[in-house]
Design brief:
The chain is an alpha/beta fold. It contains twelve helices and eight strands. The protein has a single domain, classed as SGNH hydrolase (Rossmann fold). It has a six-stranded mixed sheet. Helix 2 links the parallel strand 1 and strand 2. Helix 2 packs across helix 12 and helix 8 packs parallel to helix 10. 45% of the residues are buried.
Length: 388
């Protein structure tokens, strides 16, 4: 009997020792999510914009999109998988079907993201004379409405839905990129984009709270990429500057990165405001796990430390575009998927796929950082929870 007590005591001491050494979070058993529900824009879309066929204007649903992984276009705006695909595969969940797909099963999750989506509704931009820059009706709150309309097909009774959602992962974004591009593409001052930040962050926060009200207990909320590093903005900005006096010292571009400082500052301001909002939501909902996912840091690292990630050391340059037509391989008349464009032979050498979106290789690096760190606060999983 004494021996049994000693063994139990030693076992308890061993558990306490593990907790003291590795900390309480690392001792948590590997998370098993029942489902994943994703919302967002073209960085997350898995085909919602082309479930009824490929619109004539949609070059992103033509070859060479999808060339690396699927072998054909799927509606994903990349050469292969997007981040939500990597997360689903790592968590043992089937690739999420687009929510508009017919005859699909949504019991393990659904993807409501759609290319062109904004955080703010179209009416917000129309009131400010920017309605022409919004061509998708799938704003954040429209996507949440689609989610609520789908509930009966997912889980039936309200009690069953709350239990399913409590055990599910909700990925909310990114949102904001298309909101800010609306005034920027209309050649409005960057200050007008900055003025949208409080509205965009408020909309994202409201979206988080709507999902929490439905029972969501684990939510991943991504910030913005450093948009000043993207070939689309680098190309259009330099074209505009050709008819203006030179900057002299070139101070509008980062000395090491070559990225546009003002636009990266916009992304940074958004991300700081979003993290502040997330902190407020955590305090308001202590039983809910809200994770901030960092797009900005890994993308900057792709530019400054390209070789560490297997990318070519070069100025930000699209893999798929118009070869020989500019430093950044981006030309609006020969965008990827359009006649006259061409994809590089090895997309895995590039982080920018088409000048606007990421390659599968870049998505893989970011997904890993969101799953295990260091690009999420906190990461979805602990390093000890790897399923591979």
């Amino acid at each position: 009997m004494a021996t049994t007590r000693v063994r139990r005591l030693l076992a308890c001491l061993a558990v306490l020792l593990v907790l003291a050494v590795v900390g309480p979070h690392a001792a948590v058993a590997a998370r098993e999510y029942a489902a994943i529900f994703s919302f967002g824009d073209s960085l997350s879309d898995t085909g919602n914009l082309c479930v009824d066929g490929i619109p004539d204007y949609l070059a992103t649903a033509r070859r060479p999109y999808g060339m690396t992984y699927f072998g054909y276009p799927t509606g994903r705006v990349s050469d292969g998988r997007v981040i939500v695909d990597f997360i689903a595969q790592e968590l043992g969940v089937p690739l999420l079907p687009p929510s508009r797909a017919r005859n699909a099963s949504f019991h393990r999750g659904a993807n409501f993201a759609i290319t062109g989506a904004t955080a703010l509704d179209a009416a917000f931009f129309q009131e400010r004379g920017l309605g022409q820059g919004v061509w998708s009706s799938g704003s954040l709150h429209a996507q949440i409405k689609w989610f609520l309309e789908m509930k009966p097909a997912i889980c039936g009774a309200p009690e069953a839905c709350r239990e399913l959602f409590r055990r599910s992962l909700f990925i909310l974004g990114e949102f904001g990129g298309n909101d800010y591009s609306t005034p920027l593409c209309a050649k409005r001052p960057v200050s007008e984009a900055h003025a949208l930040v409080p509205h965009v962050v408020r909309a994202i926060g409201e979206g988080v709270e709507k999902l929490i009200a439905e029972g969501a207990a684990e939510l991943l909320v991504p910030g913005l990429l450093p948009i000043g590093c993207f070939p689309v903005y680098l190309t259009t900005t330099k074209q505009q500057k050709q008819q203006q006096p030179p900057d002299g010292d070139g101070s509008s571009y980062g000395r090491r990165s070559g990225c546009i400082k003002d636009l990266n500052t916009l992304s940074w301001v958004h991300n700081v405001a979003l993290q502040r909002r997330i902190a407020e939501l955590r305090a308001r909902h202590p039983g809910v796990r809200i994770m901030y996912a960092d797009y900005y840091t890994p993308a900057i690292r792709f530019v400054l430390h390209a070789e560490e990630y297997g990318f070519l050391k070069q100025a930000p340059r699209a893999c798929c575009g118009a070869p020989g037509m500019g430093e950044h391989n981006y030309n609006i008349a020969f965008m990827c998927g359009q006649p006259g464009s061409h994809a590089c032979d090895h997309p895995s050498n590039h982080w920018s796929w088409d000048g606007i979106h990421l390659t599968e290789a870049a998505n893989a690096h970011i997904a890993k950082g969101w799953l295990y760190g260091p690009f999420a606060d906190p990461p979805i999983l602990n390093a000890s929870e790897s399923t591979t």
